[in-house]
Amino acid sequence: MRTTSELRLDADSLKSFVEAVFVHSGAPPDEARIVSDHLVTANLMGYDSHGIIRVCQYLEDVRKGIIVPGAAMRIDSETDNSAILDCGWNFGQVGAMRAVQCAIAKAQSHHMATVVTKRCNHLGRLGTFTQAVAEKGFIAIAACNSPPGDGRFVLPWGGRDGRLSTNPMSFAIPSDDGNPILSDFSTSQVPEGKIRLYKNQKKKLPVGWIVDADGNPSTNPQDFYGPPRGAILPFGGDLGHRGYALSLLVEILAGVLAGVGSTKQQPGNGLCLIVLDISAFLSHREFNVLIGELRRYIKSSPPAPNHREVLLPGEPDFRLMAERSAHGIPVDHQTWEQICDSARSVGLDATEVSKMSQLS
Amino acid sequence: MRTTSELRLDADSLKSFVEAVFVHSGAPPDEARIVSDHLVTANLMGYDSHGIIRVCQYLEDVRKGIIVPGAAMRIDSETDNSAILDCGWNFGQVGAMRAVQCAIAKAQSHHMATVVTKRCNHLGRLGTFTQAVAEKGFIAIAACNSPPGDGRFVLPWGGRDGRLSTNPMSFAIPSDDGNPILSDFSTSQVPEGKIRLYKNQKKKLPVGWIVDADGNPSTNPQDFYGPPRGAILPFGGDLGHRGYALSLLVEILAGVLAGVGSTKQQPGNGLCLIVLDISAFLSHREFNVLIGELRRYIKSSPPAPNHREVLLPGEPDFRLMAERSAHGIPVDHQTWEQICDSARSVGLDATEVSKMSQLS
After folding, report:
1. What is the pLDDT of residues B226-244, one digit of tens each?
2. A189 and B239 in contact by Cβ < 8 A?
3. A82 to B111: CB separation less than 8 angstroms, yes or no
4. Does domain B190-232 bear CATH number 3.30.60.50?
5. How far is CA A180 from the centre of its chain?
6. Looking at the whole model, is its pTM more than 0.90?
């Protein structure tokens, strides 16, 4: 008897279920587990747009041959502290986690490393990968671009036509407090999904998010989707030249360095991951003392009006993860039905699906 | 006969003059030239707040013993691709240029490098150093923090009291077009100097730049200066959590990694410079082809309403440099008189000063 508009699903059960779905789609179990962990953790941390809602898309991509489960990955070229990793169109998460391992191994032996990917599918929540690096005690900075195949709907500063993607950046810093300081944000004013949300809710957009096809500011979500298609402004509002600059930096690090042209039609993402070994500069003990001092100093600011406390980047996400780990992940019925349909389509035992559905 | 409100000074003459001022203050000629080049080039590129207006401040710092002309610099600790450079409280520009040389040398032999500074004075326009790296064919990313001595007047997101400085970032990318793609921006919504300008002009600030001492939004510049003192918001307007995150990243890279605590009272700046060797990834020829493609693609966007064309980061600065190189650097009379007074105070021949003044 469901009376609420959403289910609450147990994270561990959900992980097993999603893993089984990808195994049935042809992925080796260890790779299916990487993708499943990634998606469910995104939900746990509140990134629902990058969570299990992607299962259907990925299965569709497998069917179309865009994602090649089990595909071999190889280092295209490398030095002691750099590499171009060819992900062979495996799941983007599998490729990016290989990049993480590669960069950590190089930074362990050579103090710092930069790894870029090519032929990498949609890699999901970028913060997953910087977080994984920080959890090993290293500093990580990541940039992620999208080739034009996924749409270039972010304006260059002063321009009228989209030339960039939402090009997110992320960094993670180990903290004395357990969870890393973790930031993950698009260099566009908003991600596209947020505009879709306003459109579905028939709400006006805040000023400064989009322009219409003529380049004029608009608060009507339909002016973005068109036709004719509008565009999203770069991050920074009136000062969006900074968001534009960061977006270009992402494009160059994650695209150009991997040898991928900015106008080449292909799916997926490019990733650039820079890893720094803290112990090249100071001991982990000293670092922890200074990070602790900074953390306490920042958090000692009294809260602004309408705020309860000052949080560090990532802190809201880790709090939500604790809450959702304890009380389940909210999933709306429509999304869940779509996932169940997808699961059946790869021949997953219907009893299993039904059992999963009962967890709410 | 001066009828205009400003002088126009020839850049090369100005460089020689400012160099002579610093030599008279006790700096070795090669170090005086670094500082002079830096300041005049900042004026050429339009960063007047970081140009020759700083001469008086630096001479005052020399008198107070804050800046130690000719001070020895040394590597505190290093690996093949990292270093902590102790700048010995020499001019900040001299220290930062040494960091540039050190990072380039390491990246040349080991593909990438990260150099951080300590005991570094005010280093001026951050873009100077990333630009110098890019002009040698490498990619540079830089972060610059300020210890609390210079004021912590930027809010952490959700806070009421300043905990961060304007913490600028810069990057520079070699371009097929001659000048690098060059970006240099504070991670606060505005630099402090811009608020001072509005105050002097008795103008209201745009919404979203500052809050008063109670943390409430204000458009009155006086609410920032107080007393009681207000604060500047982090970059990003309503979405300032991203500017806050970037500011923290700067603080950690440029302060913590050098072993400098975030609450330690001291003057100057901390610098973190990350340098990547492009040829670790692809040939310079391939890189240039792809950068050219990206450059043309970006610039092919028709201009937005009220814009004439799409420019790359740094393009406006290089254009202004060409204009000011040809037609002189505008300097207001008050600033120029202050500089002449400073020059006389270090015993610079008054004829020289007067000759310089006639260039307008």
Report:
1. 899 999 999 987 778 899 9
2. yes
3. yes
4. yes
5. 16
6. yes
Asked if A244's CB is within 8 angstroms of B161's CB, the reply is: no
Show residues of chain A in contact with B158, CB under 8 Å.
303-304, 307, 309-311
Name the CATH code of domain A6-67+328-357 (choices 3.90.180.10, 1.10.10.10, 2.30.30.240, 1.10.1530.10). Answer: 1.10.1530.10
Query: Measured between CA atoms, how close is B314 to chain A, in angstroms?
Result: 9
CB of B103 within 8 Å of any CB in chain A? Answer: no
Is the interface score ipTM higher than 0.90? Answer: yes
Q: Mutation test of the interface with chain B: which of A126, A185, A239, A295, choosing the one with the most B Cβ atoms within 10 A? A: A239
Q: Which residues contact A63 (CB under 8 A, 6 or more apart)?
A: none
Choose the CATH number for A74-189+233-284 among 3.30.1370.60, 1.10.260.40, 3.40.50.720, 3.30.360.10: 3.30.1370.60
Residue B272 and residue B84 in contact, taking contact as beta carbons nearer than 8 Å = no
- B6-67+328-357 shares its CATH topology with B190-232: no
Residues of A whose CB is below 8 A from B312: 248
Secondary-structure percent of chain A, ordered helix, strand, coil, rounded to 5: 45, 20, 35
Rounded CA-CA distance B28/B33 in Å is 9
- Look-up: residue for tokens 């993607």? A165
- Assess contact for B196 and B222: CB atoms under 8 A: no
pLDDT digits (tens, 9 = 90+) for A306-349: 899 999 999 999 999 999 999 999 998 888 999 999 999 999 87
